[in-house]
């Protein structure tokens, strides 16, 4: 599976982001990824394990050395996402408020 295909799957990057600080169990991952179903979580975990990016640990799941090497890219993406969100918010504030008028 190509990296872009893997990382483009819903919740894959979020799972990696949550594992960046250390191992987490499935329940903790589900709690941190509000709205993700357990079936999707386990599918992503299987895919990330098969790709050598995460591994099971005594505490749940953790990044492998290969997965940990993604940390700089994840931080850069997180910083960009924050900048983008701020720009989106600023643009929304610039838009004039429209009133729906009836005839």
Automatic annotation (TrEMBL):
Key words of the record: DNA-binding, Transcription, Transcription regulation
One Gene Ontology molecular-function label: DNA binding
InterPro entries attached to this UniProt entry: HTH_HxlR, WH-like_DNA-bd_sf, WH_DNA-bd_sf
Keyword Transcription regulation included in the entry's annotation: yes
Cytoplasm is among the record's keywords: no
All residue ranges annotated as the HTH hxlR-type domain in the record: 1-89
Protein name: Transcriptional regulator
